[in-house]
TrEMBL record:
The gene is ribT. Its EC number is 2.3.1.-. This is Protein RibT. GO terms for molecular function: acyltransferase activity, transferring groups other than amino-acyl groups. It comes from Pseudoneobacillus rhizosphaerae. The keyword tRNA processing does not apply.
Amino acid sequence: MLIRYKKTFEKIAMGLLSFMPNEKDLKKLQQTMKNYETDDSWHLFLWKDEDIIGLIGVTFHDDQSYEIQHISVNPSHRKQGIGKKMVQAVKEIYPGKSILSNQLTEAFINKCENE
C-alpha cells in the first residue's frame, strides 16, 4: 500500500533513499529530503506491507506530467514486484498524466511500461 510521506518516517525514508546511487552523500541526501518536505512540486510516497519497505518520489514539471525522481526498495524485498506496484499505484494517484523518468529511473520505468 502506498502512503504519503510524513516527517515521522524521515529516518526510514532516508535509509531507503540512500540505496539510490546519487544519494550516497549525506549532504545530498539531506537536501533531497528537504526538497520533498518543503517543495510543493516534490511528492514522496512510501510502500508499506507490514513494514515500510520501499519509496517512490515524483516531481511535477507542469500540469500534464510528472517525473519519477527516486524509486527504491529495501534489498531484502527486491525481485518481488514491489517497484512495479509502486509505479502502478502512482499512476492511479495521478491518472491521465504522463510519466517521465531521469537517468537513474529510466531503465526501470521503461521495464514497467513494457510489461
